[in-house]
Fold:
Amino acid sequence: MFIFFVLLATMLESTETVTDLPDYHVDLRMSSQTKPYPYGVEFCVIPKTGSMITTEILCDLLRDYREIPYKHNFGKNISGINACVNNTFYPDAHLEKWKRSTKIVRFTIVRDPIERFASYYGHFCGMLNQCEGKDIHQYSRWMYFMLNNKIKPKTHLTMGRLFHGYPQSWFCNLGSDKEIQIIRYTHNKKEMAKQFLRILKKAKVPKKLAKRALKHLKKSSTVHAAKHSERQKLREQIVTNPTTMEHVRAIYHDDFELFNKHSQ
Structure:
C-alpha cells in the first residue's frame, strides 16, 4: 500500500502542469526575520543572499556604536553565531559614538533567483547531503510539487531546508513595504560595498567606520561557502534544461521581477 502511494505521488509530480505559483502563501510570508540595530538600521534576513556576512558587518558597527572594544573577525569561518549573538546584542551597553538618524533605515538583499537556487541546492543537497540523492532537476520538480500543492513536510529537517529555498518575495513584506531599501547581490565586491554605503549613509553611520566594517565583503567568507566554479556548474545545469528552468521560473516568478527591477 505504501509503495502504491509513493508511485501515485511520483506520477502526479511528473504529470502536473507547470504554472506560476499563485500568491496564496500569505500564512507563510515571513515578517519576523527583521533584526533592528540601535544605530538606526533594520536588516531583514532572506536565506541564501549573503546574510551571514551582512550580520557580521552590522555586528562590527554595533560594537563601534556602543564603543565596545573588539578585534575584527576577518576570515573564512563566518557563521550566523557571531559575537553579537553570543552576547545577546550587548543589552547593557548604552554609549552612543555618533548621532544616529531619527528615521529607521530598513533594508534587505535580493539575489538572482537562478544563482540563489543553485547555491541553495549545492549547500543542502551537495554539501549536507539532505536531498535523498535527488539531482538538481529532480529537486526542482519536487520543490515545485511541494509548494504548489501546499504540502507540509513531515520532518523539521525537511521543513528547515524548504524554508531556505522559499521565494525571496515571501520575506520582509516586500510586496507592501515601500520603505525597505534593496541591495542587489553581486559578486562585484566594489559594487556591493557601494550599495551598502548608500544604506549606511542614510542611517548616518560614519563613513570611515562603515568602510572598515565593509572589508568583510572582500576578506571574509562563510564556513560553508561553495567555490564559484561549483555554483557555475549547477547554474549551467539549470539554464540548459528547459524543464528545470520551467520549474525554477514557476517557483520564483516574482523573484525574477523583483531582481530585474533592482538591476536597473
